[in-house]
Amino acid sequence: MIRYRRPTEDDASIIRLIDSQLVPLSHLTPAQLEAVRRDIPKRLSHGVTLIACQRYEDNPLGFVHFFLHGELLYIDMLAVAPESQRKRWGNMLMAHAEKFAASRGCKRSKVMVDVGNANGLSFYQKLGYAMVQYYTQSQCHELDKTL
């Protein structure tokens, strides 16, 4: 099932997913990563976070966090636990985020993928995202999709 984030119950699991699935792919310095980690609770309090779990009361198997900016859906973070990958949880999270955004007038979706994240790049391309540009400084690919 896909549900909305429950901060008190979900945030520790979300932070573990960030640390295990997203941080290792980042090219930020340790000091930059620490600043980003400190900012996670504030970041999660803005935008929308959807949780993938077997039952409503279960801990997250994965999550997607996103922002709506006018007609743009910006996928901020997506992570799925290793044991739950390749079971369509990521697809379901993205489908819910895109449907949510489209229902609120979004026409496009954008995501940034770290250069070393070949699996993430392939995942988004299978969902219809196309490479727009590469940012050398942050070592990220920008991908875009029409909703």
Descriptive account of the structure:
The protein is α+β, with helices and mostly antiparallel strands and 147 residues long. The protein is 38% helix and 31% strand. The chain contains four helices and seven strands, in the order βααβββαβαββ. It has helices spanning 7-22, 30-45, 89-103, 118-126, and strands at residues 2-4, 48-52, 62-69, 72-80, 108-114, 130-135, 140-146. It has a seven-stranded mixed beta sheet with strand order 1-2-3-4-5-7-6. β3 (62-69) and β4 form a beta hairpin. The protein is globular and about 40 Å long. The mean pLDDT is 95.
How is this structure best summarized?
The protein is an alpha+beta fold and 147 residues long.
